[in-house]
Design a protein that fits this description.
Chain A: It is a single-pass type II membrane protein. The complex is a heterodimer. Chain A is of the alpha/beta class. Chain A has a domain of 177 residues: Spore Coat Polysaccharide Biosynthesis Protein SpsA, Chain A. Chain A contains seven helices and ten strands. In chain A, the strands form two sheets. An eight-stranded mixed beta sheet of chain A has the order 1-9-7-8-5-2-3-4. In chain A, α4 runs antiparallel to α5. Chain B is an alpha/beta fold. Chain B has a single domain, classed as Spore Coat Polysaccharide Biosynthesis Protein SpsA, Chain A. Chain B has eight helices and nine strands. In chain B, α3 links the parallel β1 and β2. Chain B is elongated, with a radius of gyration of 25 Å. Chain B starts with a helix and ends with a helix. The chains are: A alpha/beta, B alpha/beta. The interface between A and B is large, with 61 and 57 residues.
Chain lengths: 316, 340
């Protein structure tokens, strides 16, 4: 009898839905709690990862209070260093980089910019605020952009040994073809700091462009790795940056001796090293963005991003 | 209806009934499993971490946050070390190569010596297992310090100190004693110091995840409470004064720590503040704890431990956000124990 079977089915479904509703309510209750007191309740980002499994904070808008951080760090009278390489045609990016840094980078701190270039004459004079200085560091230019890129580790390492360790407390190593759009402050200070590459933060680990040839010292095996970090931003305490760049440079030399160059040059080596020497702080893609990408809703703010340019034209 | 249609119909009806029953059974089973799993971290001693991992998969996307029911970071980006937010294996890898020694200070003055046995025995099971540990027992009764079998690389150092007649004085003088011994012992013997109350027992893993430059622990009695109810010292005359509307958290006086240099600065500052208060004839409402809170308000800790690290089951029960009870208060009769 049709009506009977339908009635039975209807009753069962009703019971089931009641059961489901009760279950969902109970499930919610088991994780419900009274909100814990925080000075800025909005600082609770649930939509993004805010802590790595080794307890390094992942810095994004809404996770920190700038005022608290400035009050903690400004009295320490720190000097923050910035290295950037403007070789060949890349000198054209210096002005915008410096002007935007003057507006947004480490406001209220002493800052030393170190521009490494093969053409010191081409570095424009950009007015700087008090307490901020520019040094032009002459280096050798190379014909291949890959070579220029990879030599950065060595140059930074040598610079720290000769001057950097005396002049700065923290050092950031940034790409020059970028612009600051929003504040970059004391929230980024840490012992060893890496930034997540904007192209790979929604991509599963097996797709990260690690160096996959075992012959290279930058080799990362399947299943290894945490995040894919960008070579355009890294930093930390000057001693830690010295060790880090030294380690990367040695690995690059070993590869050279074996006649191999890693898939993404020093970025591959940086990623290899950050697996065994995990950063104490990780910057979200707000701190290293690619303007060619559409801004996802989880990215509240873009602080530092590439200048859209014809990269093929520039690299030789 | 002819019999053929009837058979067809009852067969379909039976199939559907089976589908619904299987679904119901699955949902029932899953929800039971879910509830059981949530309460699986029991308060009984757990010697192994509940997580047995393969390499953790970390993707920076939504819904990959391991805990969404609690705050994971302070506004100055210090991690709050909740269970489920860290990977013990990765952290042990980071710390093992550094050959560190962790110092623990505990004060067993007068009758408090009775707490030593349980404290030390449970510490051997749960505290910094696999690392070098020096237990510094400050006592006025060195003969009452129990002999406990210790794991390799761990030792008990008994430091004989004076007692005070008031328990408040005993509590407050801990700061002085710790800062004094920093120069004599701690700077050269240990890398990290953890300063604990002795009337506690370890109940679950306490490891290197808690180590950092300067560490404070959230007082279990104030978790979920609003700032106005925090029992900070409110009299401006005291060095421990924190005005209304200020302050981040209420920290526990019985569990703080960090690198020796940082603990030295903290204990020295608190001791000096208490001396100034004494000369002004004022005693902070919660003694050394008030001064600790003032210090950590001005010098933010680099890591904050959640109430998992110091809990009182008798007083506070077992709320949902507490997945582990790592250290528990040992029930005691306050009147009998103090001032004797």
């Amino acid at each position: 009898m049709r009506w009977r079977s339908m009635l039975l089915a209807a009753i069962t479904l009703t019971l089931l839905s009641i059961f489901l509703v009760i279950w969902m309510l109970t499930w919610n209750w088991s994780v419900h709690y009274l909100p814990y007191y925080l000075p800025c309740p909005e600082a609770l980002r649930k939509d993004v990862l805010t802590l790595t499994p080794w307890l390094a904070p992942i810095v994004s808008e809404g996770t920190f209070n700038s005022e608290l951080l400035n009050n903690a760090y400004r009295p320490l009278n720190l000097t923050i260093g910035v290295t950037a390489f403007a070789v060949g045609k890349y000198t054209r990016f210096v002005r915008r980089f410096l002007e935007s840094a003057e507006e947004f980078f480490m406001q209220g701190f002493q800052v030393n910019y170190y521009i490494f270039t093969d053409d010191p004459e081409a570095i424009p004079h950009v007015p700087l605020r008090p307490g901020r200085n520019l040094s032009v560091i002459p280096i050798q230019g190379f014909s291949h952009w890959e070579e220029i890129s990879m030599r950065r580790m060595e140059s930074i390492n040598k610079f720290i040994a000769s001057r950097g360790h005396r002049e700065v407390d923290y050092l950031y190593c940034l790409d020059i073809d970028m612009v600051f759009w929003n504040p970059w402050g004391a929230e980024t200070l840490g012992d060893l700091v890496a930034a997540i590459h904007p192209g790979y933060f929604t991509v599963p680990r097996w797709q990260f462009p690690y160096e996959r040839r075992p012959l290279s010292t930058a080799f990362v095996a399947d299943g290894e790795g945490d995040f894919y970090y960008g070579g355009a931003v890294f930093g930390g305490r000057v001693e830690r940056v010295y060790e880090f760049t030294g380690g990367c440079h040695m690995a690059i030399l070993a590869d050279k001796a074996n006649g191999i160059m890693a898939a993404w040059q020093e970025e591959s080596h940086l990623n290899r090293r950050f697996i065994s020497h995990k950063p104490s702080k990780v910057l979200s893609p707000e701190y290293l963005w690619d303007d060619r990408k559409p801004q996802p809703p989880s990215l509240k703010l873009i602080r530092f991003s590439t200048l859209d340019k014809d990269s093929m034209n520039l690299k030789n | 209806m002819n019999s053929k249609t009837k058979d067809c119909l009852s067969k379909t009806y039976r199939d559907w009934l089976w589908v619904i029953l299987v679904l119901a059974a699955f949902l029932g089973g899953y929800s039971t499993y879910f509830i059981l799993e949530h309460h699986s971290s029991s308060p009984e001693p757990a010697t192994q971490s509940v997580q047995h991992h393969e390499k953790p998969k970390i993707e920076l996307q939504t819904a990959s946050q391991r805990r969404i029911d609690v705050p994971l970071l302070t506004p100055w980006l210090a991690p709050i070390v909740w269970d489920g937010t860290f990977d013990e294996d990765i952290l042990n890898e980071q710390f093992q190569g550094r050959n560190i020694t962790i110092g623990v200070t505990i004060f067993a003055i007068k009758k408090y010596v009775i707490f030593l046995k349980l404290f030390l025995e449970t510490a051997e099971k749960h505290f910094m297992v696999g690392y070098k540990v020096n237990y510094y027992v400050f006592t006025d009764r060195p003969n009452d310090v129990p002999k406990i079998p210790l794991q390799e690389g761990r030792k008990i150092i008994t430091l004989v100190v004076q007692n005070y007649s008031r328990w408040q004085d005993i509590s407050m003088h801990r700061m002085e004693m710790i800062s004094n011994y920093c120069h004599q012992l701690f700077f050269k013997d240990v890398d990290y110091l953890v300063c604990l109350d002795v009337d506690m027992k370890f109940n679950d893993h306490v490891g290197v995840e808690m180590l950092s430059d300067l560490v404070g622990t959230l007082h279990p009695g104030f978790y979920g409470a609003s700032r106005e109810t925090f029992t900070y010292e409110r009299r401006p005359k005291s060095q421990a004064y924190i005005p209304r509307g200020k302050g981040d958290y209420y920290y526990m006086g019985g569990f703080f720590g960090g690198k020796v240099q940082q603990v030295y600065k903290l204990t020295k500052a608190c001791h000096e503040a208490m001396l100034i208060d004494k000369s002004n004839r004022i005693e902070a409402v919660w003694h050394d704890e008030s001064h600790l809170n003032k210090y950590l308000f001005l010098h933010k800790p680099t890591k904050v431990l959640p109430p998992e690290y110091m809990w009182d089951k008798q007083l506070l029960g077992w709320p949902a956000f507490l997945r582990k009870m790592r250290m528990l208060a040992v029930p005691k009769n306050h009147a009998k124990i103090r001032n004797k």
